[in-house]
Amino acid sequence: MKTLKGIETASIQTSRLNTFYYERKGEGETVLFIHGNVSSGAFWQEIMIDLPLEYRALAPDLRGYGDTEPLPVSAELGLDDMVDDIISFADALGIDKFHVAGHSMGGGIVMKLAVKIPHRMTGITLVDPMSPFGFAGTKNAQGILCCSDGAPAGAGSVSPEFVSLLAERYEKDDKQMAPVNVFRSFYIKPPFIPENEDLFLQSMLSTRVGDDWYPGDFSASGNWPGAAPGGRGVANAFAGTNFNASSFSEIEPRPPVLWIRGAEDQIVSNNSLFDISALGAMGAVPGWPGAELCPPQPMIDQTRYVLEKYSANGGSYREEIITDAGHSPFIDRKDDFEKLFFPFLK
After folding, report:
1. Is residue 92 one of the residues assigned to a domain?
2. Nearest Cα to Cα of residue 217 among 155, 157, 160, 162
3. How many other CB atoms sit within 10 Å of the CB of residue 124?
4. At what angle do helices 105-116 and 80-92 cross, to 10 degrees?
């Protein structure tokens, strides 16, 4: 994996697994960066380098990503295995308190992390986070399941072409679902091409593919589209049947929260192009049963619902929208992101 100047890498054996991580040395408080799905800790390197030197920056690879020991992901734990991995990582490095920033799936992990150890967090930054009610298969701001078996969500709703090309570590851009084209079209807002695109692509290609990792297995379902979440793998772990971080609104103590999102995000939105219900409503997936049963998941509304409850319970949060940015504003609008993030750390 490409490492930018100023970034060091290492591995540490924790009480749970061998964790690979990126570090930018600093003198004071630790900022812990948690990456999203189909990426790795490497995604955060540019921000880590720019971080004021009064902070120490750490970005671990989660299990099934990058160079961390690829232990299996249990869907039934709803990403709690990754949450516990992060706690063991901080413990192994002797870090008691830290600011934590999570992107996409990492944002969901951070919310669950806060439920377990809120007293260790000095602040929380959520960057285009997945909904507190999981990804796909839920409706309304309160995250009600569309179907009791979790359909339509999980590994069965993931593009098999994308998974196949990811498994091949396909680097060319001559196929629509090639990872580099998914990055250019959805991770960031076109036509922006980052200077370190090769780094981000290699990070994506480090994703471990299979039933135990991404996307996971799936179960047959009598509900549309004929598949429901299985018991293994990442995409099933963040399905609404397994993942629920809505108790974040009740944590105590309540660290301040900054919610940053790209205005043009097509992955986490109220009409996500990665949500099979949204695709069904567009006519892209046949047999859609209609908006009453399977509406597009209102991901933004669900996150705001939980954060408003957090505020009502005595916490504080701020929502910031970066214009002309996609799913990863810390990449395609880095300067704008840093103008929000760095002052918040103080």
Report:
1. yes
2. 155
3. 27
4. 70
Contact (Cβ atoms closer than 8 angstroms) between residue 124 and residue 226: no
Residue whose structure tokens are 């036509």: 191
Instruction: Kindly give the residue spans of alpha helices, DSSP state H, lying in 183-333.
Output: 197-205, 234-237, 276-281, 299-312, 329-332
Sequence length of the chain is 346
2 within some domain: no
Residue by residue, DSSP assigns 24-37 as E--SS-EEEEE--S
| Cα–Cα distance for residue pair 116/113, rounded to 1 Å | 5
Phi, psi of 281 (to 5 degrees): -65, -30
Q: How far apart are CA 82 and CA 180, in angstroms?
A: 26
* 3 in a structural domain: no
pLDDT (0 to 100) of residue 1: 87
Indicate the number of domains in the chain: 1
58: nearest Cα among 79, 86, 18: 86
Q: What are phi and psi of 100, to 5 degrees?
A: -125, 135
Q: Considering only CA atoms, which of 66, 65, 79 is closest in space to residue 131?
A: 79
Q: Which amino acid is at 228?
A: A
Does the residue 258 lie in any domain? yes
Q: What is the CA radius of gyration of the chain?
A: 19
Q: What is the pLDDT of residue 134?
A: 98
What's the domain range around 221? 8-345
3-state secondary structure of 305: helix
The secondary structure element, H or E, covering residue 161 is helix 160-168
User: Residue 128: which CATH number?
Assistant: 3.40.50.1820
Distance between CA atoms of residues 223 and 168, nearest Å = 31
* Mean pLDDT in consecutive groups of 10 residues from the start of the chain, 346 residues: 96 98 96 98 98 98 98 98 98 98 98 98 98 98 98 96 98 98 98 98 98 97 97 98 98 98 98 97 97 98 98 98 98 98 97
> Please, what's the b/e burial string for 162-180 (b: 16 or more CB within 10 A of its CB; e: otherwise)?
bbebbeeebeeeeeebbbb
* Nearby residues of 339 by Cβ (< 8 Å), 6 or more positions away: none
